[in-house]
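Retro notes, structure queue

What went well: the backlog is down to a handful. What didn't: a couple of records were mislabeled last round, so from now on we paste the full input next to the output in the thread. Example, using Chaperone TorD involved in molybdoenzyme TorA maturation from Polynucleobacter victoriensis:
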Amino acid sequence: MDKNLDKEVTELSSDGLEEDVARADLYGLLAQLFYKAPDDDLLHRIAASAAYGSGADAPDNAALTQAWDQLVKVSSASNAQEWANEYQELFIGIGKPEVFLYGSYYQTGFLNEKPLVRLRDALQELGLEAAENITESEDHIASLCEVMRYLIAGDDLSIANLTQQKKFFDEHMRSWLVDLCDAIENHPSANHYKAVGSLARAFFEVESYGMDMVE
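Corresponding output:
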């Protein structure tokens, strides 16, 4: 996606916005991990990070903290080649992936179906377009996480606001995220990415709860 989705999350210093920065950062990290296997630099940065939830304004959720700690542990004990091999086996495969990362698949059982058409219409309304160098369809979980990241931390407040976050999350993500996490966590070949699936599940549960609080 364009509109500066690849830039660093804007620093927000006003009271009460630190949690949104943490949310945007985590969406950004999940986008990176689902788009491609992490390199050694990213693994080192994850391994060296503090426990999620240690900040005063971070979401207070035990499951999310435990899932983050597990990802830190896995990142500390692995290397980029191991992650690359697993990514290839799970999400690319030979002929077709073992685990699909596309929303249309979980909503209809097929790729490039009506949910993708509705998603493209929604992205057009938001003024977002697929970047030319991106080959994955817009319903790839990495692309959707990038959109949520922008809706949280973007500088255009007519688009980057809580109302749009809830609308996008509810209409294009909520219904199938659990199925995606189940597919990852339950796959016998998932080792490193099992930790990513667990983190995604815990985070999306927090997000779902938060969206339910929005009127």
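Agreed that this is the format going forward. Reviewer comment attached to the example: The domain at 18-212 is CATH 1.10.3480.10 (TorD-like).
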